[in-house]
Structures are given as C-alpha cells and as structure tokens.
Specification:
The chain is an alpha+beta fold. It is built from two helices and nine strands.
Length: 198
C-alpha cells in the first residue's frame, strides 16, 4: 500500500518515516483497544444474563455459641444475634413464611445461592447443622432439625427479647448447643437451668 504524506520542508525520507510512525501509532491504538476490550470481557466484571458469580467464602453462614444474658449459652449468627426456633416447626416443617408475614418479625437464616451448608463456629456441633428447603425453594439453616431465625426486637448482639414469645402457631425459644429449646430462665449469674427437649 502506497502512502503519500505531504509535509512542507521535509525530505521524502522524512515523509515516509513520518507516515510509518503515524500508521504504527494507529495500529498500536487499534491493537491496544482490542486487547483492552478482550481483557475487560475476560475479567468477569459483566456476567451474562441469568447467571450469578460463585459464592465467596465471606458469604457463608456461620453459626456459633455465645453466652447471652437471660438465656445462657445459645446459638448466634456471625453478627452475634441470638438464633431462635419455633415449636411448631419440629422436624423441619416450615410454618414461618414470607406469605404469612412471619419472616418480617422473625427473619429466617437462609443460605446464599451457591452455598450448600452453614459453617460450624465455636461451640457448635457440626453434626447438628443441616438444611431444609421451603416451599418457595429457599434453603434454611437448621440445628438439630430446627430452622433458625433472628428476631427484629433484638437491636444488637447479646439480646434475647424474643425468648418465650408465642406467635405464628408456636412459641419462640433460643436454642442451646445441644439443639434443644431453652425453655427455662437463667439467673443473672449465668448458672444454667435445664433446657427441655421437644
């Protein structure tokens, strides 16, 4: 391909050299543009419609045990919030749902998409952790067969304001590390009473 570039006061050799530099710069710009486009496409920043990125370890649900005033050592989530069970849900039967408004007051402990199980934190028996699927296909975390919930009346960690509330077809209790509902009141000194199995 012949390139003719007119630059007054320059020799033909310089004209050709100048033309080569311009074409080289254009070629580099085009090449760099296509490289950056393919790099951006392969970076995974934009996912195809209908797909989700794999869950990161930070999105896993961790269940731990912690001493909470009034109920003793019970199950808590990664934020330190007390976890509760509902007596009508023995055996993993879901009665607290979005449809009946229950989860607005008692948010469920649901696994993120791509996560198959909860993580056992300090004081928790891994063998008692499990899951149950709701009618809507959501996967809830269970402990000793009980689906786990927090309570909106607990404004922070270390509270158990939901203990003993009767609502939505049953009574709400915190869960002991043995997987039994804590149905007795604990003294301020932290000495445990017996928890009742269901």
């Amino acid at each position: 391909m012949k390139v003719s570039i007119h630059c007054p006061g320059r020799t033909p050799t310089l004209q050709l050299l100048y033309g080569s530099l311009v074409l080289g710069a254009l070629a580099t710009a085009v090449a760099c543009g296509s490289t950056s486009s393919s790099t951006a496409a392969s970076s995974g920043k934009s996912e195809p419609a209908g797909t989700s990125p794999p869950a990161s370890p930070s999105s896993a649900v961790t269940i731990s045990a912690k001493s909470v005033a009034g109920v003793g050592t019970v199950l808590v989530n990664s934020k330190g919030q007390t976890l509760y069970m509902l007596t009508s849900e023995k055996g993993g039967k879901i009665t607290c749902t979005d449809d009946n408004g229950c989860t607005k007051a008692w948010p469920d402990t649901e696994l993120p998409e791509g996560v198959s199980s909860a993580t056992a934190g300090s004081g928790i028996q891994m063998s008692l952790l499990g899951t149950v699927k709701s009618s809507a296909g959501e996967v809830y975390v269970t402990y000793h067969g009980w689906p786990l919930y927090t309570y909106t009346g607990d404004t922070g960690p270390g509270e158990a304001n939901g203990e003993g509330i009767t609502a939505f077809g049953g009574t709400w209790y915190a869960l002991s590390t043995s997987g039994n509902p804590v149905t007795s009141i604990y003294s301020q000194s932290g000495s445990e009473g017996a928890d009742n199995g269901y």
